[in-house]
User: Fold this.
Amino acid sequence: MRLRLCLALAAAPLVTASADPGDLAPAQPVIPHRSFNLADYGAAPGGRVEATAAFRSALAAVERAGGGTLVVGAGEYLTGPITLCSSCELRLEAGARVLASQVPEDYLLGSGQRRPLIGAEACHDIMISGKGVIDGRGEPWWAIERKAKSEARAKGLHDAEVGRPKMIVLNRCQRVRIEGVTLTNSPMFHLVPSRCEDVTIDGIQILAPSDSPNTDGIDPSVSRRVLIARCRIDTGDDCIAVKAGAKGGGPAEDILVTDCQFLHGHGCSIGSDTVSGVRRMTVRRCTFDGTDIGVRFKSARDRGGVVEDVTFTDLKMRRVREAIVISSYYYDLPKYGSRDNARPLTATTPLWRNLTIRNVVATEGTGSAGLIIGLPEQPASAIRLDHVRIEAPVGLRLGNVQGISLHDVAIAVLRGPPLLTDETVTGLDQ
Assistant:
């Protein structure tokens, strides 16, 4: 029989429901009642003849008409990059499958930059809907990227990026809705709303192999009023990653992630780029199964900002590697027991404060309960764990934390202490 050590703090009955933290209702797109069919612009299903020209002609017609819905019927359609316009809905009917070109030159923008498969710039009232599939066919890109990463790490570097197209990038857009569709096998990130306002992502699937590099599911970046609901995400990197890397463009704020299912991938994350700040975000009623990490906050000294007023609540986890990770050491986490010297505060020093993790049950953990670690010059502060149950081989590591409350927290471990802490942790309320 293997020994199980358990830490139980301020024991009380496990709360199974929490007060609703509030619902977010982003403004919705308004699409004119006009319909355009891709087949009328020369697209033939079958996926053998490129349909890029047909997509572009049809979207140009939508724009000239002042908006409407472009309907893509059942069948396979091979295309290079296309650009949406304002007041436009791209509707993929059941059986429709949009296949991304695998020709690298199709995506070139210059200076190593790549255009996305589907993009929009400074548009309003955009929808992508239906029961169809957008397939990024990213396998050739992944092979090149894996080789680049391997070579970089052999040289002692953290990472490398060869420059790959993303699937959908909507930049500076207002009133966006993505619903129903399946996004799969993007060469890199699948869905990126960047500097957008009023974004709703509802009931979509995002699927990619667990070993596909940097295939993030949804990456809202410096965006406001973002609702992500009822999505199923199974990827090779962050399932969701809220980012705020654009200096002067933030903060990312008023974000609700609710009733989502996370499978393979790195969990529901904030960061690593947080320089513009993230605030007023709630993640609730989500499940994690086989996920690398559940709750994740990540940044580093050269890419941080203020992340505050964030709540993760009513979560169920099974077989996650780490249940909770809050770290200011992206890539370079000091070993337990070692010490890092404080450095001068800068504009990119990460700060975590007013974070609540409540009503979490994590069973059959495969790595550790997790870690909460700030910087010696900027400790994490005002952290609260409330009604949390974690099973893991080893315990929860705390470091450089100033003010942390553990109420009704039970950590069951197979070896070592359930809570790993040192003198850098002050204001621990048990």
The helical segments are 52-64, 139-154.
